[in-house]
Amino acid sequence: MTGELRVALDSGGIAAGAGEILEELRILCAAYPGLKVIAVGTPGMCYADPQVEVVIAGLPQVSFGNLTPEAVHYIFREFLEKKQFPDQEFLNSKAILIGGRIFGQPGAEPPQYILLCNTQIQGSPLPTEMISAFAAITKVAIADNFGFYNQGLAIQLFPSGAVYANLSEDDLLVIAQGLSRGELPSKKFWLAGNGQTRIASRNCGVINPESLSSAVAAGAYEALKKALSQMSPQQVIEEVHQSGLRGRGGAGYPTGKKWHLTALQPSPQRYVICNGDEGDPGAFMDRSLLESDPHRVLEGLILAGYAIGASTGYFYIRAEYPLAIARVRQAVREAREAGILGKNIFGSNFSFDVKIRLGAGAYVCGEETALIASIEGKRGSPVPRPPYPSQRGLHGQPTCINNVETLAFIPAIVLQGGQWYASIGRGTSTGTKVFAVSGHIRRTQLVEVPMGTTVHEVVFNICGGLPPGHNLKAVQTGGPSGGMIPASLLDTPLTYEDILAIGSIIGSGGMVVMDDRVNMAEVMRFFLSFNTDESCGKCAPCRVGGFQLRHLYEELCGGRGEQQTIPQIERIAHAMQAASLCGLGKAAPNPIFSTLRYFREDYLACLK
Predict the structure, then answer these.
(1) Which of 84, 138, 150, 338 has its CA 20 to 30 A from that of 255?
(2) 1-98, superfamily in CATH?
(3) pLDDT tens-digit profile of 36-65?
(4) 254 φ, ψ to 5°?
(5) What is the pTM of this model?
């Protein structure tokens, strides 16, 4: 046997026991020199941790999830050695064969294996006679689900990976009879894809994040070679400008414009900073990218330095991300040893090096001026703007600060062009966006979709909707600075303008799903506790206003609210929004207005 077994060894995978899975596989594969067991980052399907993707010649490329060490032995014996799918009992009790990213073309080739997703039809189990109709098929594995929770009865054919979904009992019988004659299912049943377009996360779960050679084999630093040999710094900025890329850290400011303004400043020294101080509750996009493909982010940082004329870059990463820090350090060390960092990179006149600084967990240090103060060794608190960091930033010099995800897009834009990137998305919200979806959802995962994809598409079609028994009440986006999207507005496109129009923001990409058990006043009490704890206290509107709002919500949720409580909340929130110094205080009232707008009955219920 030759090929790879990819074990998802990100923070989530490690917490679920992926380390044990990795060791078991290494022991089992010792007798097979052609098999490599590699640790990769997350493929995005966090709900299935610990998971292993099998990429072996002669076998369909599939992923096994929710594994135990015992399950690994069974899979190795049945799937790898005997080349047959594990049986139904095993799939249900110890592992789930997950669909994940596996989508083939309809009518590609006759199937060697078939997986039947035994989803209930209108609340009733699939009749046993329907399952028996598949007995004549070459290989059949029956599973309660393989990742397509909302697609009804489905089958997946291997090795093509094509999925046929939303089948009726009659459809299934017709398909079974056709397959017995060697006929492929009708294209009308084909599930075209899972709605994702991977650019920033393309290599997540595919490469070994601790290996430069693995990253290079997947295309790392090709964009940097192109820029240094064929493009001037201004041409790089122009491509980014044409792409329409906007900062993915939350504000959505045009990246090309920020680079251009920084490059214009007359200064012998400029700096570029990667902001990895991800602090929103429910957000794990930046952590996943740094853990899974650090060389892509590093390449984006180097390209940003080349474009603006900086010779030094910084990674600012929150200290609570030890695995991300370790892998970024490894990437920087390997890049420096290979001559990708340092003097005269790739034989050019451009020299650039990187330093790493750790954040101490202060949420406010995600704000640019507070982040700069922290790197300088000062207390991380914001200062008034202007001047903006692009004019006077780190050590008083022009400084460009970009979010992790923003930088992860840069290599693809340089390689394929700004117009290519601008062709993806909707309106002025171009390209794709990475979202971390969690909460009351079947499939907690990392997804990357074109801007303009609806909230409904992400929640129900990609993440499988809510578990049975409860209905969706709201989807929270934008973290503590965002808002609540009610179930009635789930068809809203995920663009900066459309989400803002309904009272929320895209933010950095956290998306928390809440069901009908949630009281929105209680949710706001949590967010206010978070914001008041994280306030730097420098300005009175945020410091005092946050404390007052927190007290009012404590009274309200404790059943002690009075009729004037809600008007008081609104007045203080407006004052705090108008007068606070930085984005934390200005944006903290956003979810207050959103919950009062769509869920006022929850507040009134607390008064009663």
Answers:
(1) 338
(2) Glutaredoxin (3.40.30.10)
(3) 999 999 999 999 899 999 998 888 788 899
(4) -60, 125
(5) 0.93
